[in-house]
């Protein structure tokens, strides 16, 4: 739900999360700005719709949204971020249809961390044992 941050903060959020936290999986969702015309038509009574120009309709879906991206903008942001941080990214959405214009109502990017050779070996042992407490008879303490 990155649309609740300022746009530059959302971009920095992606950079920080994928570079510092490096989660195996990150799911990001945000409205598809192109879908707003459909939502505005469904929420504006017919007699008021005729009297309102495009400039009078709300810019975003929610007064709390700081920005909303088109599919192209979201795809560009997520693809660049994934490439820069060694992630794959898959796109999906909710509401509407990805096969019909203007796409899903909300768009989703699923980032998956690509395992490096070092990570693949280390995944069986995510930590290094530096000390084990043993009982007086030499057995490991449970």
Automatic annotation (TrEMBL):
Enzyme Commission number: 2.1.1.386
Residues covered by region (Disordered): 39-60
Catalytic activities: small RNA 3'-end nucleotide + S-adenosyl-L-methionine = small RNA 3'-end 2'-O-methylnucleotide + S-adenosyl-L-homocysteine + H(+)
Coiled coil: none
GO cellular component terms, semicolon-separated: cytoplasm; nucleus
InterPro entries: Hen1, SAM-dependent_MTases_sf
Record GO terms (molecular function): metal ion binding; RNA binding; small RNA 2'-O-methyltransferase activity
Cofactor (UniProt): Mg(2+)
Signal peptide positions (record): none
Gene Ontology biological process terms in this record: RNA methylation; siRNA processing
UniProt xrefs under Gene3D superfamilies: Vaccinia Virus protein VP39
Keyword entries, A-Z: Magnesium, Metal-binding, Methyltransferase, RNA-binding, RNA-mediated gene silencing, S-adenosyl-L-methionine, Transferase
Assigned protein family: Belongs to the methyltransferase superfamily. HEN1 family.
Protein name: Small RNA 2'-O-methyltransferase
Taxonomic source organism: Brassica carinata (Ethiopian mustard)
């Amino acid at each position: 739900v990155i649309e609740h941050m300022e746009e530059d903060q959302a971009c920095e959020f992606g950079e920080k999360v994928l570079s510092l936290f490096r989660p195996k999986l990150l799911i990001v969702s945000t409205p598809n700005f192109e879908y707003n015309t459909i939502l505005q038509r469904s929420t504006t009574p017919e007699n008021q719709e005729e009297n309102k120009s495009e400039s009078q309709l709300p810019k975003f879906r929610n007064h709390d949204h700081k920005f909303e991206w088109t599919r192209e903008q979201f795809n560009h942001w997520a693809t660049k971020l994934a490439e820069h941080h060694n992630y794959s990214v898959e796109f999906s959405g909710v509401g509407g249809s990805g096969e019909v214009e203007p796409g899903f109502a909300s768009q989703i990017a699923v980032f998956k961390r690509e395992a490096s050779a070092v990570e693949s070996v280390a995944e069986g042992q995510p930590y290094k044992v530096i000390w084990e407490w043993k009982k007086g008879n030499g057995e490991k303490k449970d």
